Structure formats: structure tokens, C-alpha cells
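G.,

No rush on this.
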Amino acid sequence: MRTLCLLSLLLPAFLCAQVPLPKPDLSKAPPVISVEPDLPEGAAGFPVDVNNYENPLLLFQGAKQEIPMADEPSPDLLPPIAPYLPGEKVPEGTPDKPLTPDELRLRSLGIKIVSSVVGLRVWDSFGTQLASGVGCYVSADGVILTDSGLLHPEIAEKIDYITVTGADGTNTKVSGFYVADLTSGIALLQGEDTDTTPLELKADTDFRQEQASHVLAMSEKRGLVLADATVQMDGALTGLGWLNVRGKDSPGGVGSPVVNDAGQMIGIVAMQVPLKSWMNFALPCDAAAFELRKGRAPLKPLTSLPKSPKLRDVANDPEFVRAFETLQKRRVESAMRQFVTLARKYPRSAECWALLGLSASYLGAAPEALNCQRKAVALDPKAGLYWHQLAFAKLREKAGMADDTTEDKEALELATEQRPNDALAWLLLASRRVRDGDLGSADDALKRVMLLAPNYAQAHYLSAYVKGRQKDYEGAQTAITQSLKLNPGYSEAWYYQGLLLDKNGDPNEAAKAYRNTVRLRPTHPNAWKNLAYALKKGGKTSEAREAFEEHTKRSAKK
């Protein structure tokens, strides 16, 4: 799929300023170290030049767009959970051992609901699979509840039939539908099997406090997959009624039921962020319960599935155009309010969520931006630029002392995989690999950066750091010289230059480099002290004493 690029790349200097690098350790030799750069001063968020963004209305020319639908969860992301259900083949080599209380609880719950959960696959007339997900019976005569995203208008006109796979491997078809509403997220289908065991819907559940739950998926490869999770209402401004579902395993797919300990359905997964550090977005089952209570609409054939709103319809909506123009004019607070309205109107539009996240980022609301970018990549996982934005939002959140996860690294790897010419994503990935101690992979990423953007001073600086850690001091000197040539005002590069010169036994030149550092950044945590040591080695005792007094004075203010 060709991605709709509504976001532009950020300025390299500001991107690099967000990248946490290892803290200096002056007690070890050789002193080839760096410090964590500060964020840009006076920035409410990070600077974004919306005037350089591609106008989305120009991207709908040519071939018709298709949105990617949720694939069956990868077995690599779904480690087998014990115990295995009765009748399920146990892998060879599985040791016999008594079941723990948690395993017994899961097995009991699985046996109770196994016959109610089904796998759904959407096909065109040529036998090509268009989408796949999960559903569950909610009536005794075969009504299936699933997420309406499986029947998105972008593919609706191609849908020929839908297959239903039970936990016992039997296959039937869907004979029609009652409701398919993207706004509420509800799709009610009629299955051919009219003697079914329904799940009980528990409406009016209070999600204000985090509570234990369980997420289910039906895989043709593995059968029923069940795992523990937690669920809570998203209280953020951009939450908009969604539920956050988290857990250690990620069996859920689009349409997966979220159930409580009693086996009652309390929510339905609508979006799945395809990461190992997984997170699903779900909707309460209240809307589905309401649809079932008010009586069924007439059964309609699949050919009558809603054909709008498609991607083109969203981008051509005058409200969308106005919001985009508002953002271009840097009226960010107003633009954010407009995109909140659009996200309510088009909750399955990756573009609306991405631009809402961008507005939040511009205002410095990192958690809000992260919330939105997760939804954007869940809806359009082939959009490398959205992965870029997700990674950057996560880095901003981590700068605020959020829990460290692998989410930013995974997002950057996906961004560079899908956008191999994204120099800034490669640079951020290189920095993350440095922090992980993976210097060889970091060096490979930096080579890609310098091939794509040879004038990035930050890339040469980071390359010097990597080479220094690898004890290639000659290479480090070459890289730091190039960094300073490209940006003589780069204080961190001057500091690193001082370290290299000091190691090479040239304290006088090292002192000059440290003086440039403190001139450009008087609050540098180590430059004054290093300057004092270099001056002392050079025989300039009085100047060394002054520099050390300055270091002591600044340290006392912290």
C-alpha cells in the first residue's frame, strides 16, 4: 500500500537533541565519553515545520488506496500458554507437571468460553484474503460480534464471503450482516450455524480503575489462545472512550473479546499495535449490548456493506482540510481541538490520529502524542513515517522519566525497514543501539545515515563516540573533526574533541576545546572540571584553579 504522508521529517538538530547518550565516567581510562544533550531551550514541545508537509489531498491521485487489515497474530509473538485445553495436542517434550492455580484458572475459563470464540477471514471472489480477525457468538442462533474494522469501507466492495472457523476446526460461512458501524466499532454478522453458545455481555463495567481481564484469539494454527491482561479506561484527552489493554503475551487480534474472570465479555479489541511490547486498544461492549437489546435490523447481504467513509472521503472532508490548514498556520491548540473532533468522527483513520498526535507533540504533550501514534500505526502498520513518529513520541516520554521499554527501538527498526531512506530514523536507531551497547549495529546504522545525509554533524559526532568505544581513536578523531567542520557551534563535539586531545597527550589543545565547550554551554556538567585538569597538566596552575572553582560553584547550584 502507498502510504499517505501527512507528516514531515523533523529538523535533524532537534531530533538528535532528544537522543539520550551514555553518561560520562571520568574515573575510567581512556576518557572517551559523552554526556546527555539537553532538550532545545524554550521549546514547548519539539519544533515541527508543518509548512514542509505534503498536502494529503494531492496523494489521492492515481491508483486506489487499500488499507492493511490485521493479519493473524504471529506465533513468534504468542508463546504457548499452559495448560493445553482438552483435546489439544501437547507438543513433544512437554514435561508432565502439576498445574498451578493460575493454570487451572485459565483452563477452567478456556473450557467455559472455547465454543463461543471463532476466527473470521474475509475473502474476495478470487479467493484472496482481504482481512482476518476474531469474533464471538452473542446469541444462541449464531449472531457473531466482531470489530467493524474487518469490514472497512475501503475493502467492502471487494468482499465476496466470510468464513467462520470454530475452536474444533469446523468451517462455516457468514450469511449476512445486521450492523457494520465504524463509529461505534460494532459489526453484527449472522453465521450459518444457528445452534451456538453465546458469550454473556457485561455492559456498564467501570473501567476507571485498572482491572484484571483476559484476551482471546482464534488461530487456525494454534486454536484458542488465551492470556491474562489488564484493562483500563484511557483518561487522556485523546483517549476518547477507548480502553487500554496490556499484558505480557499478545494473543488478541481485531475483534478479540476481552472477558472478566467470570467469562463475561466486557470489551472488544479494535486496534492492535503490532509490537512485541504489545498494547491493544479496545471498546467497551456497551454499544454491542445496546444493539442486541433494541432488536435486530433486517438481515442484509454482504454486498450492502457500507462503502464509505474511505480514505479519500476523510481527506476530502472540509473539516479535515480546515484542521490541516490550521496546523500549517501553527495554530496548534485550535488544530488539536479540530483533530479531536475528527478522531471521534473517523476513529479508524490513521491520518486523523497521526495529525492529532503531531499536534500534541508540538504542544509538548508526549503521553498524548504517544497515545495517538500508537493508534496510527495500529491502523496503518505499513506507514513507516508513523513508526518514525511513534518512536520519537516514545523518546520524548522517556525523557520525562517514563518506564524504559523496547517500544522506541522496535518502532525505529520498523521505520527504517519501511522507509530505508529515512536518515533521521537511522540516526535515532543508531543512538538507541549505542545505549544498548550494540556498537557494531550502531556503526552500521551510522554508515547508512552518512550515506543518506553526509552533512549531519550529529551523525559524525555519534560515529566518533562509537569509534572511541571501539578504541579506534584515529577514526574517532576523523569523525569529530568532520562534525566540528559541519557545525562549529556543537558544544558536545568540542567536549569530545577535548577528551581525544587529552588522551593523545596534548593538554593545551584539549584546554582550547574545553574552553569552546563552556563558551557554547556554560552549564556543561564536566567541561569545567576537565578544563581545570587540562590547564594543570599544561602548567597553567592559576587558570586551572579558576576553572575548578567555577566547576565547584556550578556543581553546588545543582
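When you get to it, here's the other one too:
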Amino acid sequence: MKLWIVGVLCVFVFLTGCKQEELPEERFQAYLQAWNELRFEDMYDNLSEDAKQKIGKETFVKRYRDIYSGIGATNLKVTLLNKQFSGSTKGSAPDSFTFQSSMDTQAGPISFTQQVFLVHDKSQKVHPWGVQWNPSLIFPDMKDGDKVLAQSFKAVRGNLIDRKGQGLAINGKVLMLGVVPDQLGPDAEKTKIRLSEALNLSLEDINKKLSASWIKTGYFVPLGRPDVQLLQGLESLPGVSSQEQKMRVYPLGEAAAQLTGYIQQINAEELSKLKVKGYVTGDLLGKAGLEQIYEEQLKGKDGGRIDIADATGKIKRTLAEREAVPGQDIRLTIDADLQLSIYEQMNHDAGAAVALNPSTGEILSLVSSPAYNPNTFISGVSDKQWKQWNDDPKKPLLNRFTKLYAPGSVFKSVTAAAGLNTKVTVPQRVRHIEGLRWTKDASWGNYYVTRVRDVSDESMRDALVNSDNIFFAQEALDMGKEKFEREAQKFGFGEKLPIAYPVDVATLSNSGIKSDVQLADSAYGQGEVLMTPLHVALSYIPFVNKGNLLYPALSEQDKKGNVWREAVTSPENADLIQQDLLEVVQNPKGFGHGTYLPNVPIAGKTGTAELKLKKGEDGQENGWFVGFNTEQPRLLISMMVEDVKGRGGSGLVVAKAKPIFQTYVK
């Protein structure tokens, strides 16, 4: 009968849905899952009632969050290792567990094994088991009153240096003018006005800097780099002083702005993406140019140390320690002196210039003009300065050496190579052309090709000297679009240039050459042909290297070997074009004669690309010059200046290029 009653009771429990008492392992697994998912509120709910009496939920949650945030904890993983039985009776329930906790931190990985006890409380009907929590479960040896101390050791940022070791972006010291806000005194507003005028800052900019969250009593707040002559008068004002501070310095300033780029403090959006890579609030980040491209190598790795200290501040245990690893210095192929010289020759005209060593493919300069001063970003660009840059019609923030432009007549050298490769162009053959306009036939309607000189009989050399559009248009039509496109594409059209610095991809057409008119225009660098100043420079390298197109190199990391495209044209054709380009400069009638130097043979080609919507309309003209020295070649320049109409056309560009050859090639 007794057995029957028990059986009925068991059936009753089953039918009424009564649940067996929760096992301690279930409770602990719920605690571990909440911990791994950083759900600290749910962790707290799994504590024993006794533990909850000793620490409140808000304090518990805040402590975990503050500690994990302070040490930069990521990749937390807490796992159960084993369980133990406290009772001596066989089959008694486990009441203690051993777990392992591991995480990555700013000071390196931390891993430890610890034991935790679960206690049974009969008064708790639903969850009778609870974690007997104490501070040692955060980290071993922690007790009430102890603190976790985290120190960060910032890595020194690597430098950008030129081929001779000169700095382009370096860690230096800068004299900064600033204020201690709580010492400005009763004339604070008058002082701010004086500083506003001296530093070209608006009052709004100054107030924004002085209200930053990091400022505390007695803190010096840098406002800007002052004119030394202004310091004496300003430093006498209450609360105003100057300090030499460690900062990123760009010695060439505007001359290399788009090349180097700049660094700025990381913003919230960037931090959300880069936190997994160890970035923290206040870190400096490359925002443009090489500072951005080489950010990972330049940044280095921050170090740190994490300790447990008692209430008096005495260190009890070091949990993790890692030395900072300095960022890598990047040695570039750039020549800082040449970079500065070319920028000065640009004289703030809108344009771009690229210099290469045509014998090696090394990039010696990348210039965009006009430019901004990257040093301004270190102390913070004011709204006023930002507006000035953005409103400037010459667009100093635009990086022109990465942008696409119609190359105009400097492209004729590519057309000449294509003609020679296909044997359509015969060097000594003369074309008879009459007048300044030419149209293929009536199918072109009122469309025609123009030239600037009426020369009736021309060879290829004559056509390059006279920069004759009609000659090269006829050569391209004789080739046909298939041969023309095939040969021109050998110069790297449609391909990303194999260097770390991103530049736009050169194109022969938007979606193929569709007509004879487009083919004719393409032959002299108009139509839909687009190239960057860098790609224009690279397209002339085969005429120096027996027909081979070399890899461009901006740093040692970019060098992938010497030849990028072998046999773009034959050695014989390359030498022939080089001799013709020499004639363009040496012949007094050549448009490139302005770069003629008696003791330094220069080969080159000028070009003018007109930007207009319809034939016959006036449009903006961009002037070009590409040239290189032919004896022991070590300098090739591609230079473009916008809006040269009425200012000398391509002759304006030639005049800027000549002094560079005079200085660099002796």
C-alpha cells in the first residue's frame, strides 16, 4: 500500500507539471553564460542571498563595467573546468565549481583559474542555489577595498622620412599658446577676444576648446601655434601662457600636405570600428594621405600594466604587463627638397606635378597645389579655417595628383607607340595635310579636328614637334579602334596602379570607343581619355627603358620587382620616340623648347586639354608638360596646371618645369 501511494504521488507530480528542484550546475551555467555575454545584471541575479546582502546590484554591475572598461577587456571567455562534491554521502549534490577566465587587455592577456561555491537556501523555492560571490571572483587575491589599477604606455608613432632621411611627418616639439581657464580672471572675455584675433580663431572655437570634458582645475589648454612676435604681449594676460608640447610635425607644411596627410584624434564612429584593434578614446589616427595608408605600421602597439592594489595604494599583484612597441618608420622614395622645389614652382596655381626616376620607377615627388597646412590639424582646425578652405575656388583640400584629367597632347606619345607597334605608322612616311581643320567625310557632319599650325607635309617627328592633332587622328583611324585600344591599354589603362597610395584608374573610354570621331579625338588625348598626373608620368617610362614599363615605387614596401609591363613597345620604337621628343625640346619651333638646356638634353611633350561640352564652345584649358633628361636619366616630370587659357597655355607649365631640371639635373 505504501508503495502504491508513492506511485500515485509521483503520477500526480507528473500530471500537475511540478518541476524538480533546480540543480546547482544549472544555476552556475546560467551565471557563466551571463558573464560571457557581459550581462552583469543577470550575473547578479544568480548570486546567493547572502552575497546580495554584502553588495548591491548597482554597485556590482558598475564595478564589473568599470574594471573591464578600464583595462580594455576584450574576448572574454569563462568556462567550467570541473565540479566537486562537499558531502561524504555517495551521490550528494555538487556545491563548488572550478572555472577558468581569460581575456585580452591593453596590457596583454590575463588568464586565471578560480573556485566558486554555490550555497543552498531552502527559503528560495524557485532558485534555491546561489553563487557565493566575493571580489576574488573578479581577479584572484582581490578583497573588499582593493582596486584594479590600469596604466597605458602609449607607443611612439613611426616617422615618415624621405629617401635621404629628412622628415616628412615626424614626432617633434611645438610651442603652443594656451590658457588655464580657471586663471583667466574677471577680464576673461577680453582675453578671449585678444586670443581670437591673434590665433585666427572665432570665440566659438575658443569656447569649444575651453569646455572640453578632460579639463580640470589648473589644466593648460593649448589653443594654437602663435606668431613669436605676438607672444610677449599675450603672455602678460592673466591665465595665458605658452608651452612646448610633443606633437606631430610636418616640416614641409603645404608642400607635402596631400602626400603626408595628417592625424587627428579618433572620433566616436571610428572608435566603434577600431576598438577591436586596441584603439581607445583620445588616440590619434591617420585621417588622410600616407598617415592613413600606413596607419597600422606607424601606430605601433600600446603597452600597459594592470595591478591589484589595496586600499592604501600598495601593489598586491601584477595581473599583466606589456611594453609599448614603437611604430615603424616608413622610408619613402620621395626627395623632400625636390618636393618643396616643385611646390614652390607651382606658385599656388591649381594643378599637380609628379616626379619619377625613370630608370628605377621610384616616385620622387607627388605635389598637389594649392594645399592646406597639415600642422593646423594637430592643434585643431577652427570652423573659420575650415570654411576658408572649403570656400576657396582653388580647392586646397583637393588631392589633384590622384584625380583624372584629359591628358591632351601629352598622350600623342602613346598613340605614336601604338602606331609603330602595329606598323601603321612608318617613321619617315609623310602625310600631306592642308589647312587648320580636317574632317573625315560627310558622315561627320560639321564635326572636325583642328590644329594650331598649317604644315602641309609632316612625318611623325614633325607632328610631335608641331603637336598636330590631325596627323595623330588620321594615324588612329588607319589603325582602327581594336588595334588602337589594344596597344594603348598596354600602358596600364583600366588597371589600379601597383602602389599603396590610391589613385583613380586611367581610362581610354567610358564603355569602349563607339565611333570614328571618338577614336580621332582619343588619339590626341581628348574624347573620353582620362589619366592622373602620376599615370601620365608612368606612360613615358617605356621611352627611357627600351620599351619596358617599370613598377612605380613610393616606399620599399611598394617594390615588387623592376618591370611591371614588359615590351610595351620595342626597344627600337622606344628609342625612336625618345629622339622625337628630344626634337620637341631642342627644335626652336617645338612647343617644349622652353625647357631647352644647352648642357642637359631634355626630351618632352607639351599638351593643352580643352574642357567643353560642345565643339566651338569656349572651355577651360589645362596645360601639360612631360619631360625627362636623356643622359643617365634620373628625373621625369609630369606637370599639369589648370585654367591656363590667356596665361600662356602649356608655355606656362614649361616655364615652371625648366628651373626644376636646372636644379636637379646638373
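The chain has 23 helices and 25 strands. Residues 571-586 form the longest helix (16 residues).

Enjoy the weekend,
O.
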